[in-house]
Design goal:
The complex is a heterodimer of chains A (171) and B (572).
Chain A (H helix, E strand, L loop, with lengths): L1 H14 L8 E2 L4 E4 L4 E3 L10 E6 L4 H21 L2 E6 L7 H10 L4 E4 L4 H5 L7 E5 L4 E7 L5 H13 L7
Parallel strand pairs in A: 4-5, 5-6
Antiparallel strand pairs in A: 1-8, 2-3, 2-6, 4-7, 7-8
Helix pairs in contact in A: 2-5
Chain B lengths: L2 H24 L5 E13 L14 E13 L2 E10 L12 E13 L2 E8 L1 E3 L5 E3 L1 E2 L4 E2 L2 E11 L2 E12 L2 E2 L3 E10 H4 L1 H4 L4 E13 L12 E13 L2 E10 L14 E12 L2 E11 L42 E13 L11 E17 L12 E23 L4 E12 L1 H4 L11 E16 L2 E15 L20 E9 L4 E9 L11 E11 L2 E10 L2 E5 L2 E5 L2 E11 L1
Antiparallel strand pairs in B: 1-2, 1-31, 2-3, 3-4, 4-5, 5-10, 6-7, 8-9, 10-11, 11-12, 11-13, 13-14, 14-15, 15-16, 16-17, 17-18, 18-19, 19-20, 20-21, 21-22, 22-23, 23-24, 24-25, 25-26, 26-27, 27-28, 28-31, 29-30
Classes of the chains: A alpha+beta (171), B mainly beta (572).
Chain lengths: 171, 572
């Protein structure tokens, strides 16, 4: 018990050192498009408008809940802010065949890539999915969030609107 | 807590802190430093009612921290890991601390070179997959060198050589591999670039070397596996197939059979707005391929045998999961998804999703060879590919999700499952100890978003199993032996998310009709979770039932446990 207390206090003290990355560019890794061709993650652009990069998997319920929740407002948000959502599936050979069927059935209009070897996941330091990043118009990663709770998308929308208006983000 | 232990844990954080400071000072011109870390720690207690006995080491943890540096095409990184000892249910061989992962990588135009540790996959992984799943503590990274060469858009050539990670050391065998993939449409972009049909073909060859030190058997020191694959994609249609052949590879897992191995994996799917259909099938015959022929568990696996059966996330649906049988299996999985659109009779105001999924897997139909006539290089059996053997597993399930109103969403699910437990989980034909299990499982999951950012989720599950001991399980008095029969279960869960930062979960699984009345116990569980940006912390207390947990195609046995757990993960 004492050990756990020591451990947790050590960890909580250290957490101040680990804030969201601010201002770094998207690292380089090879990911696959749904048509089988390869592309480098450092070529993700949205002509000066913000981007959402969301890591998900077909077997991850919270991930799909999050992407569904975003999808309900997506068309409106794109119109308003010009945002683009890039969904990165970390499915491996067991389930990567389901990525395209899930995307089609759900009617998601996101740009979807498969990170089968998880190189991009490692380069972005993602531990667990869902993990969502926000990239500003200059291509800097300015915000990230792990896991999904009902209503998390509201905060994301708020931050996207702020970015589109050139405001600073709070965590 | 011992000084050693404290210092090890603090090492991860101080290293992270150092790098964060370094990053601030270096700025972007000098590259960027990033990383992540996770700690899962538990303080166990003895709980005789559920047979939870943690032994004398009550405090256990799994921890790791990654630090990566990147500047342009250059990247390098290390991962520190510490398990003293690992949590219950993980391979005890991981006990220790160290830096088992470090790499440097340089990418420039058509060339990409990695020295040190790396992860890689050829095709579906049937010849090679160096992979990590930190949550399962599965890590068979290669330590050596990899070159990826892209001479022309549409052509990718890969070469790897190295030794696999084995706990905190390396496998005795060496792995060498080559892979080539051609995306025909990309290659002939000028002529075919506008073609809607995409065709990709590929081939790989992987060989391992391990010295033969066996005094009696003549073991092959070099064992090669080769495979060919192709993919066709057109709009929502997708088809891919891979065939692999492995030369004789006697190992602990295949009972030192000298038979060759073969695998055929194929998958096809079609998706359109609101509808999709998918089918995946496979046949594996003697396809275990490890860099150490004596390795067991998930250690030193060079290749991967995808398990296409549905990946269940509700706990009672996954109570008796399937695990791929690399020694031999044949079967497939199919799935249809349909979305009733908004405004239709069944769709209502918000639409309704329905998924029907079915899987069935069988043993190969094998003919045992007469041991007296089998050569010194035992084949042990031949395979009749025109038929199948005993059933290993089936799972037919249907899932319906419907949003009733802006605030209320319901998921209902039913499954009928069968598991040949003795073979699939315990690798023994003994049905007296491990009976076949047929079950009906139901789930109801209700989410109520009572205001923006606040929700309550109720989940109720029932598992109703029947355990078939066959006739021979009856003793001399005609009484059925009932070991390993846990009867039926119910499970209740409430998850409250008062704000998007906090969550509180309470749950109970109740083994209400265990044939042994003293084992009709409650497995209660409570958890408090906090999330802020990339950081997640959770504290939980309760009981964990014993069982097999499978995720990402890897299964592990988890003993019953009881105690307090802390989990922290973050990235920067």
């Amino acid at each position: 018990m004492k050990k756990l207390l020591i451990l947790s206090s050590a960890v909580i003290l250290s957490l101040s050192a680990f804030k969201t990355s601010d201002g770094d560019k998207i690292p380089s890794a090879t990911v696959k498009k749904l048509d089988g061709s390869s592309t480098n993650s450092n070529t993700f652009v949205n002509s000066g408008k913000p981007m959402i990069i969301s890591f998900w998997a077909t077997w991850c319920k919270p991930c799909k809940k999050e992407l569904d929740a975003i999808n309900e407002e997506y068309a409106e948000l794109v119109k308003e802010t010009g945002v683009k959502l890039i969904a990165i599936s970390i499915d491996d050979a067991r389930s990567s065949g389901k990525v395209v069927t899930d995307v089609k059935v759900k009617g998601w209009t996101y740009e979807v890539y498969i990170d089968e070897n998880q190189d991009f996941k490692r380069a972005m330091n993602v531990n667990n999915v869902p993990h969502t990043f926000l990239v500003d118009g200059e291509g800097n990663i300015v915000w990230s969030h792990n896991s999904y709770a009902e209503g998390d998308e509201e905060k994301l929308f708020e931050n996207v609107r702020k970015l589109a208006n050139g405001e600073k983000l709070s965590h | 807590m011992s000084v050693k232990l404290t210092s090890r844990i603090l090492f991860i954080f101080s290293f992270g802190w150092f790098c964060k400071t370094a990053k601030a000072q270096l700025g972007n011109e000098l590259g960027s430093v990033h990383g992540n870390f996770q700690i899962d720690a538990a303080y166990y207690q003895k709980d005789t009612i559920i047979d939870a006995d943690p032994g004398s080491e009550l405090f256990r943890y799994n921890a790791f921290g990654n630090i990566n540096y990147q500047k342009g095409g250059f990247s390098a990184g290390v991962r520190y890991e510490s398990y003293n000892p690992p949590l219950l249910g993980y391979l005890p061989g991981y006990k220790g601390s160290g830096i088992p992962y470090r790499f440097a990588r340089y990418k420039h135009k058509d060339i990409d070179i990695t020295v040190g540790n790396f992860y890689e996959q050829f095709g579906s992984g049937i010849t090679l997959r160096a992979y990590e799943n930190r949550g399962l503590l599965y890590d068979n990274a290669l330590d050596g060198m990899r070159v990826i060469f892209t001479p022309k858009k549409g052509i990718t050539l890969k070469g790897v050589v190295g030794k696999q990670r084995t706990y905190f050391s390396l496998s005795p065998g060496t792995v060498r591999g080559l892979d080539g993939e051609v995306n025909i449409m990309e290659l002939f972009d000028s002529i075919l670039g506008k073609s809607k049909t995409k065709i990709i073909i590929g081939g790989s060859f992987v060989s391992k070397f391990q010295e033969d030190q066996d005094p009696t058997l003549v073991l092959p020191e070099n064992v090669g596996t080769s495979a060919g694959r192709f993919t066709i994609i057109r709009g929502g249609f997708n088809f891919n197939a891979e065939y692999a052949y492995k030369i004789n590879d006697p190992s602990y897992q295949n009972h030192f059979s000298y038979k060759e191995g073969q695998a055929l994996i194929a998958s096809t799917s079609y998706g359109m707005d609101g509808f999709s259909i998918m089918f995946s099938g496979k046949m594996l015959d003697n396809m275990s391929f490890r860099s150490d022929r004596n390795a067991q568990n998930t250690i030193d696996m060079i290749n991967y045998h995808p398990d296409f059966s549905k990946f269940h996330t509700y706990s009672l649906m996954a109570y008796y999961p399937y695990a791929t049988q690399p020694n031999g299996e044949v079967g497939g999985t199919g799935e249809v998804q349909y979305k009733f659109k908004k405004g239709t009779f069944l769709g209502g105001k918000y639409g309704m999703d329905i998924t029907v999924n079915g899987s069935a897997y069988y043993a190969l139909d094998t003919i045992g060879l007469d041991p007296s006539k089998d050569s010194i290089r035992h084949f042990q059996y031949t395979t009749n590919y025109s038929d199948v053997g005993d059933k290993y597993y089936h799972d037919f399930n249907i899932e319906i999700t419907k949003k009733i109103s802006k605030k209320l969403k319901i998921t209902a699910m039913y499954a009928n499952q069968f598991l040949n437990q003795s073979i699939v989980q315990f690798n023994t034909p003994d049905k007296e100890e491990h009976p076949d299990i047929t079950s009906h499982i139901g789930v109801l999951d209700i989410t109520w978003r009572y205001k923006t950012g606040s929700a309550i989720r109720f989940e109720t599950q029932g598992f109703f199993g029947s355990y078939d001991y066959k006739e021979h399980a009856k003793d001399a008095f005609g009484k059925t032996n009932i070991t390993n029969n846990t009867g039926s279960w119910v499970s209740e869960l409430i998850e409250w998310t008062p704000t998007t930062h906090w969550s509180i979960t309470v749950a109970d699984q109740y083994n209400y009709n265990n044939p042994e009345p003293s084992k009709r116990v409650h497995y209660y569980f409570g958890m408090l979770g906090y999330t802020n940006g990339p950081t997640r912390i959770s504290i939980s207390y309760g009981r964990q039932r014993q069982g097999i947990f499978c995720a990402g195609g890897v299964c592990r046995f988890v003993p019953a446990s009881s105690g307090l757990s802390l989990s922290i993960s973050s990235s920067f």
